[in-house]
Amino acid sequence: MIRIATFNLNGVNGRLPVLIKWLGQHDYDIVCLQELKTSDEKFPAEAIRNAGYGAIWHGQKSYNGVAILARGKMPLERRRGLPGDSGDTHSRYIEAEVDGVVVGCLYLPNGNPAPGPKFDYKLRWFDRLISYSQLLLTEGVTTVLCGDYNVVPTPIDAAVPRRWVGDAVYFPESRRAYAKMLGDGWIDAVRRIHPEKGIYTYWNFSYGGGYDRSSGLRMDHLLLSPALSTSLRDAGVDAALRAWEKPSDHAPAWIELDLPGNRKTPSPTADKSSILANFVPGP
C-alpha cells in the first residue's frame, strides 16, 4: 500500500509546525506541497529531512512554489515547469518518480479577478497542463497529477455554490478544462471513492478566528492515470487540520493505492532523523 497526499500550505515556513506535526501523525509515503511562498535557498529542507522525508522543490520568493516529499528516500526529479511557454517564470509544477510511480505536483493559477489577464493566464496554463497530461497518457506512464487545481468541478464540490458563481475557480471555462482532463481518461480519485458526498479541501479564513464552514470548496485534487484505476483503495481529506493553530486555508487530500511489489513501509518507531542520513536534500 502506498499513501499519497497533497497540501496547499499557504507558506511553508510560516506553517512549518503544522506541516511537521501532520507528517508525524500520518506517515504518508509521498507528499505534494503547494504555495510554498519561499525562495529555493530558504526552503526548510533540514526540518523536513529530520521528519524523515527527502524532498525536491521549485521555489519562488513570496509566491507560488511546489515540492514533492518522499518518506525515507529522495524523489527522483523528472521535470520542473510545464512545457509550452519558455517565458513563464512562475514556479507551479514539479515532477518526480517515487517507487515506480510518476507524481506531478501542480499549483494551477487562481485566475482572479476574472475576467481579465490573470484569468487568461490561468486558461493558458490549463491548456499546457492538458497537453502535457495527454502526452503522459499516450506514453502510458503510471502517474498521479495532484495539487491545488483552483477549480471547483461541480456544484457538489461547493458547500454553497451560488457564493462562487463570480469567482474564477467556479467559472464555466475552468470547469470545462478540468472536465476535459477527466474526458481524456484521468480519474478524480476522491470523487471516485466519494461519488455523492460534499467533501471539501478549502475554507475561507474567518475574521473572528477559525473558519467559515459554509465557504467549503473542493479544489485540491489527485488525478490518476488509467493504469492506477484498479489500485485505488481509499481517499479522503484531513479536514481536522483546518481547526489547528495557525492553519492553512486548505486541508490535505489523500489517496491509498494498492500497488503490486510496493516496498514495505518503515516501522513507525524508526528513528526518522537517521533514515535520510546518506541523502543530501536539495532541488
Automatic annotation (TrEMBL):
Per the UniProt record, the site (Transition state stabilizer) maps to: N150
Q: What is this protein called?
A: Exodeoxyribonuclease-3
Give the domain of life: Bacteria
Span of domain Endonuclease/exonuclease/phosphatase: 5-250
Family matches, as SUPFAM superfamilies: DNase I-like
- Please give the biological process terms from Gene Ontology that the record holds: DNA repair
Task: Name the residue ranges with Polar residues bias.
Answer: 264-276
Active site annotation, chain numbering: Y107, D148 (proton donor/acceptor), H250 (proton acceptor)
- Marked site, Important for catalytic activity, at D220
Which key words tag this protein in UniProt?
Answer: Hydrolase, Magnesium, Manganese, Metal-binding
Family membership, please give it. Belongs to the DNA repair enzymes AP/ExoA family.
Q: Does the keyword Magnesium apply?
A: yes
What residue spans carry the region label Disordered?
259-283
Q: Name one GO molecular function term.
A: metal ion binding
In this chain's numbering, which residues are marked as the site (Interaction with DNA substrate)? Answer: H250
The record's free-text note on cofactor binding? Probably binds two magnesium or manganese ions per subunit.
> Which InterPro entries does the record match to this protein?
AP_endonuc_1 (IPR004808), Endo/exonu/phosph_ase_sf (IPR036691), Endo/exonuclease/phosphatase (IPR005135), ExoIII-like (IPR037493)
Species of the source: Rhizobium loti
Which PROSITE patterns does the annotation name?
AP_NUCLEASE_F1_4 (PS51435)
Chain residues that bind Mg(2+): N8, E35, D148, N150, D249, H250
Which cofactors are required for activity? Mg(2+); Mn(2+)
Tell me which PANTHER family the record gives. EXODEOXYRIBONUCLEASE III
